[in-house]
Amino acid sequence: MTRPRGRPHRDKAPASRDQILTAALELLDTGGIEAFTMRALADRLQVNPMTIYHHFGDRDGLIDALSEHVYAEVTAPASGTFHDRIRSLLNAYHDRVISHPGLTLLIFRQPAVFPRQAQRITDDIDQLLVEAGLPSERSRRWLNILVDFTHGAAIAAAMGDRSNSAVSDAKDDYDKTLTELLKGVET
Amino acid sequence: MTRPRGRPHRDKAPASRDQILTAALELLDTGGIEAFTMRALADRLQVNPMTIYHHFGDRDGLIDALSEHVYAEVTAPASGTFHDRIRSLLNAYHDRVISHPGLTLLIFRQPAVFPRQAQRITDDIDQLLVEAGLPSERSRRWLNILVDFTHGAAIAAAMGDRSNSAVSDAKDDYDKTLTELLKGVET
DNA sequence: ACCTGAACACCGTTCAAGT
DNA sequence: ACCTGAACACCGTTCAAGT
């Protein structure tokens, strides 16, 4: 009558936070937002769905951890001209955002999990604009332009072609467009 | 043993396409993307969920019909300067997008339903830029800037404050930012 | 601490049937 | 033509329990 319970295979290593995050990103990048379910992720990890809850609390917690993981290394170089520093920061951000468009959509869907990293990146851009000597209204306006444009470009990338060549084209295009926009900041 | 089947009340008018669309927009604007389910919409209409399927096929069909309905009247004025016509078109688009941020998110989520209206609006902007005499590479670049920025601003609005004052501030802000961007187009 | 199965309250959608 | 209830194959998540 009773079926076996508890951990079945002693030989299987316990799923680590990092393994779950890696598998989650793979699932999201491969199958898109539709395929990204707790149950599908558990299947991929050969694990019970509840294991994931043990590590991340709930789905929002997992998404939050994913964005911390993906955006962690987006930082501005410490030195250089204003132009170069902001261009470098935004390119780095765009690169992460375009590499995982599904994650971008997930974040946009749930206001509750707007990640600390995204907030920090926004703050960094803001600070760079202020350092560049822009008056506060102009700096706020250009912050919006740069951030909103980047997010819009992410959406376009998430909806369109996701082949390698399309991604590298998109990066190139973004950088060129950024240069065009930064002309506006500097006048 | 058998319970009553078929249409129960003769006094209830059949749900029209337009009633369903109106109720769907209300549900989406009030409760956001999370609350927007076929079953919740049916409840609100006091109707069986399957009634909606009869009119729109499936959920994607409903979203598609919603976007046709919401974006239908976004058009550029026939006459005026290039600057005024493009500004008017983009303000109209932004106004619709910001009035129904949940719809914007729904569309972004499903590449399959990128609506004809959105495509048409994009094409209209493109044509205005070409008419303005921009060389094709510059016109493609500015099309991306204007459209992606507008979508990014929509996302920001969808995630943030949705009070009446915040919405009117956002409109004002968008128009001012647009003017700033259009300076870049004209040089 | 880490993982499990069973269960709960939801989804979108298909089906066969009523009027 | 228009609408119905029941059912199917999913969801995220809670619970109580195993090792």
From TrEMBL, chains A, B:
GO molecular function: DNA-binding transcription factor activity; transcription cis-regulatory region binding
Pfam families per the UniProt record, alphabetical: TetR_N (PF00440)
Superkingdom assignment: Bacteria
DNA-binding residues (ranges): 37-56
Keywords for the protein's UniProt record, in alphabetical order: DNA-binding, Transcription, Transcription regulation
Classification via PROSITE patterns: HTH_TETR_2 (PS50977)
InterPro entries for this protein: Homeodomain-like_sf, HTH-type_TetR-like_transc_reg, HTH_TetR, Tet_transcr_reg_TetR-rel_C_sf
Residues annotated as domain HTH tetR-type: 14-74
Entry keyword DNA-binding: yes
Protein name: TetR family transcriptional regulator
Species of origin: Rhodobium orientis
